[in-house]
């Protein structure tokens, strides 16, 4: 069974899969997974106690204060092992810092993430420029351990820390005319060396979007941390989107603007190559990329002689929760 994140007002449930290598001396009550009752985990004194190999990090006071009251939901789908921190932070796509997988880890330290504000605009009652502390002043951090599936056919399992996007939407109070949410990444050429390259084909800033019902879905997360600590710069600090049933390029990083709009936004990869990257980008093993199959994926870590291949699951394994969003659609056409 997959973790079920209930809608606001429902009882919260989670199935907890013990992972001794990652929980590091913490014990999970044996009956909790069967009872469906979420376990209240103690706050972390040091992230490495829970996730070995995690690099220590400083964090703003508001994050540290929230961490003490985090709702720890250590639920790994189907008992899958969490990807080691070093793999999750050293193998990334973040083209603002370069085209190679190791470029973000090498160059993202140049990004200044404090102070950070997000412009909220469009069809809303409460537009404005918000600090992260203001955006999430009323919320409680939650840990969500999700599969991450890249359109390039590699995958990971990552423990995120964040807030349901739906909570922010309710706080901002969009008008009924707002049918989509548009997201925009920071564009700072002086700090993001990849945007200065004359060979880059991307029309900066990077843009992504969701339909309103996707944004309001309980699985959709605004992440501010991972592995029990604040987000590393290369993983989208200080604020990124996580939509676990979609290909990774939908989970936009280092967000500086959230707009509530009437019409479907023109997103970056769809605008560049619409025949390859659709607006919905739902993980679908039956719809191949024009240059490779999506039927299988390579789970990291792996090696040349042990590539750790596995079958791709529809909606990345979250079909039970999200397939209903697309029931009237042709997912071969609306890919």
TrEMBL record:
Record protein name field: Protein-methionine-sulfoxide reductase catalytic subunit MsrP
Root EC class: oxidoreductase
Gene3D superfamilies associated with the record: Oxidoreductase, molybdopterin-binding domain
Family: Belongs to the MsrP family.
Keywords from the UniProt entry: Metal-binding, Molybdenum, Oxidoreductase, Signal
GO biological process: protein repair
Enzyme Commission identifier(s): 1.8.5.-
Cofactor binding description: Binds 1 Mo-molybdopterin (Mo-MPT) cofactor per subunit.
Statement: the UniProt record of this protein carries the keyword Transmembrane: no
Any one Gene Ontology molecular-function term assigned to this protein's record: molybdopterin cofactor binding
Complex and partners: Heterodimer of a catalytic subunit (MsrP) and a heme-binding subunit (MsrQ).
Entries under InterPro entries matching the protein: MsrP, OxRdtase_Mopterin-bd_dom, OxRdtase_Mopterin-bd_sf, TAT_signal
Annotated Oxidoreductase molybdopterin-binding domain residues: 112-269
Binding site for Mo-molybdopterin: 92, 95-96, 150, 185, 235, 240, 251-253
């Amino acid at each position: 069974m997959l973790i079920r994140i209930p809608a606001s007002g429902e009882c919260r449930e989670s199935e907890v899969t013990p992972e001794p290598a990652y929980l590091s001396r913490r014990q999970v009550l044996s009956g909790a997974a069967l009872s469906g009752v979420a376990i209240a985990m103690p706050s972390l004194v040091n992230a490495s106690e829970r996730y070995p190999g995690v690099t220590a990090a400083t964090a703003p006071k508001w994050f540290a204060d929230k961490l003490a009251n985090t709702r720890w939901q250590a639920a790994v789908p189907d008992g899958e092992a969490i990807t080691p921190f070093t793999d999750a932070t050293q193998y990334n796509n973040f083209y603002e810092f370069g085209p190679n997988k190791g470029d973000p880890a090498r160059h993202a330290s140049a990004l200044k993430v404090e102070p950070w504000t997000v412009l909220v605009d469009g069809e809303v009652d409460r537009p404005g420029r918000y600090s992260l502390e203001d955006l999430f002043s009323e919320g409680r951090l939650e840990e969500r351990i999700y599969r991450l599936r890249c359109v390039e056919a590699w995958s990971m399992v990552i423990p995120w820390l964040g807030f349901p996007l739906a909570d922010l939407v309710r706080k901002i109070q969009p008008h009924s005319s707002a049918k989509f949410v548009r997201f925009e990444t920071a564009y700072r050429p002086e700090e993001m060396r990849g945007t200065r390259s004359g060979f880059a084909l991307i029309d900066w800033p990077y843009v992504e979007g969701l339909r309103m019902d996707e944004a309001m879905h309980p699985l959709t997360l605004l992440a501010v941390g991972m592995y029990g600590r604040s987000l590393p710069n290369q993983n989208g600090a200080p604020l990124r989107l996580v939509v676990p049933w979609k290909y990774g390029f939908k989970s936009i990083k280092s967000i500086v603007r959230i707009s509530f709009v009437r019409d479907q936004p023109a997103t970056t990869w769809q605008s560049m190559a619409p025949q390859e990257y659709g607006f919905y980008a739902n993980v679908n093993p039956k719809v191949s990329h024009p240059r490779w199959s999506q039927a299988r994926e390579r789970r990291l870590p792996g090696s040349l002689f042990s590539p750790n291949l596995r079958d791709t699951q529809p909606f990345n394994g979250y079909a039970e929760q999200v397939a209903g969003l697309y029931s009237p659609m042709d997912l071969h056409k609306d890919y």
